[in-house]
Specification:
Elements lengths: L10 E2 L1 H5 L4 E3 L9 E5 L1 H6 L4 H4 L2 H7 L11 E3 L3 E3 L2 E3 L7 E8 L5 E7 L16 H17 L5 E13 L3 E11 L5 H9 L3 H15 L9 H23 L1 E2 L21 E2 L23 H20 L3 H12 L1 H17 L8 H18 L3 H12 L4 H4 L6 H11 L5 H7 L7 H12 L4 H10 L30
Helix pairs in contact: 5-17, 5-18, 6-9, 7-9, 8-9, 8-10, 8-11, 9-10, 11-12, 12-15, 13-16, 17-18
């Protein structure tokens, strides 16, 4: 079904046209009775889509893939991936479709992608459906991450389908409409390499360079430059996760983008009390993707990307391995530099403060947080007040404040800027008990808690009266928290 004249934005089918081997043309499942649950109007405007038109009948059909804009070429993308360390040669979009690309208001090409749009040839026995709760979780978490300044895919809308989804119980179904710089993953390169078709691998790499790192095309070895750029982008991304206390939960290679954007918010959450061993995913029983393991997991995934790129790095395999190894060694330095810059800003320290001094202070503070089970977000927010002369809120988070007092005196000597700290340390994050409250209410048809939570977390640095509960940690009876991917 083609789009009506009110949707005048031009769609492209660039991925489908340039890399047909990496996608299967497919159609979204028909929806029975679509109902818009949440629409990201600012994002729609940036994309050149009329928010009012998206709320009409045709708009709902477009958001669920049941009405195709002119130029759209829906495909289910195929990719491979290491899932919890085990290689799967053929994964792909089992319940998702890439509708196509739009050039946004800033001139950037952006994917428009559906999640929960029905079974595809890559469904691997799944039903292709998505429930309201997990799709709204991705909306909340991705928009909160965007507001925090963390590179991320974004959520345009969640639309209920009128179709039940069966998990442990019967749940209402929904489709998430997602926007991303692209959906190219490490697993996409793994799949192309596994085909044995070096020209396909080269076309994929050229596509990625043109899409994300155009300067690499001018390098002496563009594919080495691509690898190095992805290493740097991912090191920066994961450092931001760590500084924010975000736990992705399922860092498989098919969930790592080439662009350096966070993708696939399944069993993810923000930490409350600081603990590097924190795991929220119900399926990560060994803690492979625990909070503290995320940098190492990212580096491991990048090694799989390097392996996939070997035929493009040098015609001699041994030399290609040496080139790739040298590139991967840059991850540790890139990550350390990015983390140190972020930690220094969170501590409100001026540029002339030695980076080593700032990093040591930050790491000493994290040790104290772990020992005393202190809330990461609250502590850094309260440190801003401490920098301005009011330390009682920060001190109150420690049962025994003596060790913290010693740390604080050494920090205060460096002259931290409390105003700067309020701009980089959020007061509102998607706290787990509030996310669950919003999702449970939305599943029952009450969207008010969802919108109240979004109001807080999409303006995370601006303290506002009446939002005190959105800054508070979970109640004592909330208990151990586990999340589920929803498939």
């Amino acid at each position: 079904m083609s789009a009506s004249p009110q949707f005048t934005v031009a769609f492209h089918g660039r991925f489908a046209q340039e890399l047909p081997e990496l996608g299967t043309p497919w159609e979204a499942q028909a929806v029975r009775d679509p109902e818009l649950l949440v629409l990201n109007e600012p994002l729609a405007a940036v994309m050149g889509l009329d928010p009012s038109a998206l709320q009409g009948t045709d708009g709902l059909l477009l958001l669920t893939g049941n009405l195709l804009p002119e130029g759209a070429a829906p495909v289910a993308q195929v990719y491979a991936g290491h899932q919890f360390g085990h290689y799967s040669p053929r994964l792909g979009d089992g319940r998702a479709l890439l509708l196509g690309e739009i050039t946004d208001g800033d001139g950037r090409l952006r994917d428009v992608h559906l999640k929960g749009s029905g079974r595809t040839p890559f469904a691997r026995g799944g039903d292709g459906q998505a429930a309201v709760g997990p799709m709204l979780r991705e909306y909340i978490l991705s928009e909160a991450m965007h507001a925090l300044g963390v590179p991320t895919t974004r959520s345009l809308a969640v639309t209920s389908t009128g179709r039940p989804v069966y998990r442990e119980t019967e749940l209402p179904g929904a489709v998430l409409t997602r926007v991303a710089s692209s959906h190219l993953r490490v697993g996409t390169f793994q799949y192309a390499r596994a085909t044995g078709d070096t020209e396909l691998l080269r076309r994929l790499a050229d596509h990625a360079i043109d899409r994300h790192y155009p300067a690499a095309a001018k390098a002496e070895n563009p594919y080495l430059e691509l690898l190095e750029d992805v290493v740097t982008a991912q090191a920066s991304l994961v450092s931001q996760w760590m500084l924010a206390g975000f736990v992705h939960g399922v860092m498989n290679t098919d969930n790592m983008t080439i662009s350096g954007e966070t993708i696939d918010y399944g069993p993810c959450a923000f930490m409350d009390a600081f603990d590097p061993s924190t795991v929220y995913s119900s399926i990560d029983q060994a803690g492979r993707y625990a909070y503290g393991n995320q940098p190492a997991a990212a580096e491991w995934n990048l090694a799989r990307l390097a392996e996939a790129l070997l035929p493009l790095l040098h015609e001699d395999e041994q030399q290609a391995v040496e080139i790739a190894t040298d590139a991967l060694e840059g991850f540790a330095a890139d990550y350390a530099a990015a983390w140190s810059r972020g930690a220094k800003a969170k501590l409100g320290l001026a540029h002339d403060v030695d980076n080593v001094t700032a990093s040591v202070l930050a790491r000493e503070l994290l040790v104290l947080l772990e020992e005393h089970h202190v809330d990461l977000t609250l502590l850094f927010r309260h440190l801003g007040a401490a920098a301005s002369g009011s330390a009682e809120q920060a001190r109150s988070l420690f049962g025994d404040a003596a060790s913290f007092d010693d740390w604080m005196q050494r920090w205060l000597i460096l002259g931290p800027d409390g105003e700067l700290m309020s701009q980089v340390n959020p007061i509102y994050i998607p706290r787990n008990h509030l996310v669950e409250e919003a999702l449970a209410s939305a599943t029952e048809g009450d969207l008010a808690p969802l919108h109240q939570l979004l109001n807080a977390v999409t303006r995370p640095y601006e303290e506002r009266p009446g939002l005190e509960r959105y800054a508070a940690p979970a109640p004592a009876d909330f208990g151990a928290y586990r999340t589920f991917c929803g498939t």
